[in-house]
Design goal:
alpha+beta, 7-stranded mixed beta sheet
Length: 202
Amino acid sequence: MGKTNRRIIFTADAKLSVKKFAATDATAEKIATLTGYAILFNVSSSDRGGYVVRLLPGSPKFTTPTHAFWHHDPSRVLGSTSNGTLRLFPDDIGVKVEIDLPDTSDGRDAEELVEKQYVTGCSFSMVNAPDGDTVTENGNTILNVRSFLCDEVTITAIPAFTQTNIEVSEDDVPEDAPAKHSVRTAHALKFEKLRFDALTLP
């Protein structure tokens, strides 16, 4: 629990929902918006190796830019504060996020998995070890975090804070609109073929 100069991936659950947008053509810039709490205050994490973490109100500070990833993978970007596709809203509960998902394979996967509730959590990372105090309550060791620097929020299936859930608020592809869905599916398949062809060139 001492300070170290290393980036710490720290998983947190989220009250996420999905607001979807009807695709008018295959070049739509965003396909859905995820909303929820990536960071929660005054709740305990799961066991972090003999202790739990409790984030105090006002503890997170954010880098410029801060990114949204899929399961902490920087090669799978879902949003960024630099272009406004990731928005952060600290309040008394925690830090609410809005993520405009891109029309990419990762964006479509995230939309589908969140909608079907295969993935029900969100996480974040700490750039270095946080500032805080260790206390003992009812025999449990708790690190009360006063301050930490965050450079990433992430959609994940394995959150450390398990108190919240995920829901779909609006569907972007109505059941009576198969034509729009087929156009986007064809576009996605064409893109995947082009990428495969490029990777297999001699």
